[in-house]
Design a protein that fits this description.
Strand content: 15-25%
CATH architecture of the largest domain: 3-Layer(aba) Sandwich
CATH class of the largest domain: Alpha Beta
Radius of gyration: 20 Å
Number of domains: 2
CATH superfamily of the largest domain: Periplasmic binding protein-like II
Number of strands: 11
Order of helices and strands: HEEHEHEHEEEHHEHEHEEHH
CATH topology of the largest domain: D-Maltodextrin-Binding Protein, domain 2
Strand order of the largest sheet: 1-8-7-9-6-10
Length: 271
């Protein structure tokens, strides 16, 4: 028993940081609340989802509002912050990956899984410090001794597009040793991309496996693209409430027009 306690303590002391706080676990975990009536028709098109696509969505929403006069609200961030509001008045949910949308629909039961529509995708990339001081050119550079890497993960019902992304990239060539070497260099497993960005600074990290919109929109990050044989893609998808404002479908139609695609492409989103 003493040996078990000693080993557990040693492992925890040596483990990289898991960017979780008590605030993430103090009862605000997303769950379906049957007491909340889903009644989104209020004259405002409301979209809810994880942070990342929201900045590009807001660019599209601004143009749509100007052209149609219909107000669009894009609400983003950790799911625990908006879950109750979304259960009440979401016209549209977006998922930053297929697995995250699947998890969302366990909570937002008013939405039909058969109606989920993938609309854009993006490649995984390496975010590095501004100026790329470690001269990181690709994945293999991340395996060097002493490299400090941040990865994004989910835990429990914490839904994020980053869950498992680093493992998919590291294991892309079918080499177990790549995963093992990469894992030794991870200094933080962060719950969500916002937490990962924070950990990147706090841990003085050298690299972060993420998506293009983060280095594109942050002045203190640069982007290194992964080689074709390493890169993986995940999509962004949307689902419309059967009780949505009529204008919500109009916005979804506009979201994939050529005009909207040009705006989405400014932050790395592709069709």
């Amino acid at each position: 028993m003493r040996l078990t306690t000693f080993l557990a303590t040693t492992i925890l002391a040596a483990a990289p940081a898991f960017a979780d706080t008590a605030a993430d676990r103090r009862g605000d975990t997303p769950f379906n609340d049957p007491s909340i009536e889903h009644a989104p028709q209020d004259g405002v098109v409301k979209l809810y989802g994880a942070g990342g696509p929201h900045t590009a969505f807001r660019k599209v929403a601004a143009v749509f509002e100007e052209q149609t006069g219909t107000k669009v609200e894009v609400i983003a961030g950790p799911e625990s912050k908006w879950t109750a509001d979304a259960q009440a008045d979401a016209d549209i949910l977006w998922g930053t990956s297929e697995q995250s949308m699947t998890a969302f629909l366990l909570t937002y039961t008013a939405f039909d899984p058969a109606k989920v529509d993938p609309i854009y995708l993006r490649p995984a990339v390496i975010a590095v410090k501004d100026g790329n001081p470690k001269s990181i050119m690709g994945f293999d550079d991340l395996l060097a001794d002493g490299m400090k890497i941040v990865v994004t993960e989910g835990a429990g019902v914490y839904n994020t597009s980053g869950t498992g992304t680093w493992e998919d990239v590291a294991g892309r060539l079918g080499k177990l040793d790549d995963i093992a070497k990469f894992r030794k260099n991870i200094v933080s497993y962060a719950l969500g991309s916002g937490a990962s960005y924070k950990q990147f600074g706090e841990q003085d990290a050298d690299a972060w496996i993420t998506w293009p919109n983060w280095p594109i929109t942050k002045d203190d990050l640069d982007m290194v693209e992964l080689a074709e044989d390493r890169v993986i893609y995940r999509d962004i998808n949307v689902v419309l409430s059967p009780k949505a404002d009529p204008e919500a479908q109009e916005f979804l139609d506009f979201l994939i027009t050529e005009e909207a695609q040009k705006l989405m492409a400014t932050e790395g989103w592709q069709r």
